[in-house]
Amino acid sequence: MKDNIIRSSSSRGWVGMRPDTPLCRITDVSAAFKTQLSGAVWAETWKSSRAAGPSTPHPASACTPSLALSKMVHKEFETAGKKPGLQVWRVEKMDIAPVPTSHHGSFYTGDSYIVLYTSKNTPASYIIHAWHGSEASADERGCAAIFMMQLDDFLGSSPVQYCEFQGEESKLFLAHFKKGIRYLKGGIESGFKNVETNESDVKRVFKVKGRRGIRAKEVCCSWDSFNKGDCFIIDLGKQIYLWRGSKSNMYERLKITELASEIRDAERQGRATLEQVDEGSEPKEVTDVLGQKPDTIAEADCEDLTVDAKNTNIASLYLISDVTGSMKITKKADKNPFKQDCLSSSDCYILDNGKDKRVFVWKGSNASKAERKAALTAAQKFIKDKNYHPDTMIIILPDGAEPMMFKQFFDNWQDKDETKGLGEAYCVGKIAKVKQIPFDASTLHSNKLMAAQHGMVDDGSGKVQIWRVEKGDKVPVDPSTYGQFFGGDCYLVLYSYNTGGREKHIIYMWQGLKCSKDELGGSAVLTVNLDDSMGGVATQVRVTQGQEPAHLVSLFKDKPLVIHSGGTCRDHGQSAPASKRLFHIRHSSTNATRAVEVEPVASSLNTNDMFVLKSDDKKYIWKGNGSTPKELEAAKYVVDVLGGSAQEVEETKEPADFWAALGGKKKYQTSKALQNTIRPPRLFGCSNKTGRLIADEVPGEFTQKDLLPDDVMILDAWEQLYLWIGKEANKQEKEGAEKIAKDYLKSDPSGRVGTPICMIKQGEEPPCFTGWFLAWDDEMWDKEFSLGMKHSHDDH
Prior knowledge:
Number of strands: 40
Number of helices: 17
Structural class: alpha+beta
Radius of gyration: 30 Å
Oligomer: single chain
Low-confidence stretches: 1-70, 190-198, 304-312, 417-433, 673-677, 785-796
Helix content: 10-25%
Mean pLDDT: 76
Strand content: 25-35%
Shape: globular
Largest sheet: 10 strands, mixed
């Protein structure tokens, strides 16, 4: 190998370089790589154009990633991002080589790779991953870092960048490889060769882990590598055996078939045979390679490829600056959730989620070029200074391309370009768009995505029954007062409707903010009893006051949902209303209107809404500048409930006695409300078997097949949380399902509270849930999962 890193005669060389450009010796670059990967990064690369005086070059090398090599463009990158989909390159002896599509998903543990995903959007968005095997050298890791920066430059500094490490890959990385990834022993430097297509003397064993993000790690060809709880692929070239431990999970058995089929079809071009092997039934071909099976092998191991949601709520925010001519990091906020305005487009920031092995670098669009180019260097130094694990994932984000895993740390994140026209919304930089669909009740049954986005089961025309919880029992509510609730009480609302020729039921368990613990506990028991009385098929929705789902509000037709302060108690009965009362009225995109009694002070007002004020013998309807005619109708209804008539008052034209009734004029919300945003939903498989919440996110775009019947799943649609309970979930998970949902919300780094929780049983899914899944099939589990439980999958 030549010791010049630039070779004019190579087919894979550097382009766009002047003939008199000084060449870097590999010995120099390697030393720099080793310094960088050990954590003592090139701080000198942070010399900014803002600093006075000429910058001093790094003494170790005339070539540093952000100032020299990263400005070049490798010839292999000339086709990068031209077509949607994946492109993969492997670092080979300080150069890169494309990986054939047939080998995508296979990674040698001794190598580093560059993976580029190009979206189908117009304009396209890009995601770059630098993947490092556990045995990759410092040289290879450093070289991959340079190539990632070059590719970022070539694509206009718009890609989101991830530094990935074997066994710690992001969910997004795993999502690129639908059939899983494979870790192969060796690499370029070790002299190991790729497994050639149709090679007949292959002897490999892969241990397969994971129910969603599938990883297959090559292990020793020995019975010592096996255990009863996992599935293994025994690859003997022309014959591929799928060994299934006696305690392995059915769904891992299904996944191992997909992965083995990928090896057969991609690496062998279909010239191999798959054969299922159950523990204890090993054929002679297997024992000839592994030896005679011992009488006992290890039980299921405790390795879990899951995410502990309790760690994800710990983060800090730091400002990166080179205003003094050298890199400086200053803490901006100790704890999330952060305010979005903490991020200035003129600067770069580090969001430290190191306890969950993730560090984000956010690059402001107007930050200096030196700051933006040194993002990776800054993150590496930060990780070293914090004494974090060296395999901590680094995610570099340009302004405007923030993924949900970053935005979740902020309170009510609003994307700059999230709304277009009359409410069409999408997330910049995401793989898939989530377009906002205007609400139309007449198409609820045909447009399931709209039903899901707006949380609507139907138009609310079914049968409604309401009970108030009193002394451990449920007492019927007078139908003439349906739609009026007291904040000191709990209620059960039973809604029955027909869909597809079947009667279905929803039980809304409404809990006032000031209800007693006895009423909370009683409402839960009564909900279960009511469900049991109908055969246990009802969907249960726990609703906290102020967080009512749109569908619940729609049950009261043209009446607003009215929430009074006060309630009932065992000793004194119904509480007396206050002499001074203020109701906040707001109309939603689903034509649902709420009127909630709030503290009667001026600071409770909001320019976007309408209010009703009752004081002694006077009543006012206060019309904010952003209020609507629908809200005026609701305000008049509230006045009728209170009795009498009211004076209408325009904002900025209030009489003196109006302010006097509110205790004097004070500051209130006067900024126009931002449009509601549509956040991409997220799906998690959840378990609390170990005594702590384990939430394993489904990578990429999820499908109905990701709802596994032996799981409890969480579909987080932001405005509402759906808790899906599979028929085969264990007893502990079923009984603790609501606690799982509450623990999930408690661990949410955005700090949201009061999100409605909708409990759904497998087979009883309402449209507002199924609408988030493309082509929902009510009979899918009968046709596929039941078949998988009864029969093993034959070779196809």
